[in-house]
Amino acid sequence: MTRGDIFALIDVERQRQAAQWNRPHEWGRGDCSSQHVAEPVKAMVLAEECGEVSRAVLEKDADGLRSELVQVAAVAVAWLEGIS
């Protein structure tokens, strides 16, 4: 898989996250790029995704690992997008 392929997967995941969370919810409004989601919540979301990476490693789930790593990267990108 090329870097371009990986960045494309991250972009698709970012779009999915933005669509899924583009509403008010228990932790604010929007995804991790939103100023309406507190940084501790963003850290929790990122940590939860990292936990899923660990689980995929322990379960020797190569496809799951790839998917979870893309989600970790997309959450990190979202958070970076929201930093002023």
Report on the architecture of this protein:
- This protein has one domain: Helix Hairpins (Orthogonal Bundle), CATH 1.10.287.
- By secondary structure, it is mainly alpha-helical.
- Strands 1-2 form a two-stranded antiparallel ribbon.
- It has three helices and two strands.
- Helices cover 71% and strands 5% of the residues.
- The mean pLDDT is 97.
- 19% of the residues are buried.
- The chain is globular, with a radius of gyration of 13 Å.
Outline of the structure:
This protein is mostly helical.
Strand order of the largest sheet: 1-2
Question: Into which percent range does the helicity of residues fall?
Answer: over 70%
The appropriate CATH architecture is Orthogonal Bundle
What is the 3D form? globular
Estimate the strand proportion.
Answer: under 5%
* Overall mean pLDDT: 97
> What top-tier CATH class fits best?
Mainly Alpha
Structural class of the secondary structure composition? mainly alpha
Radius of gyration: 13 Å
Number of strands: 2
DSSP summary: helix tally: 3
Give the SSE order as H and E letters.
Answer: HEEHH
Seen as an oligomer or otherwise, the chain set is single chain
CATH topology: Helix Hairpins
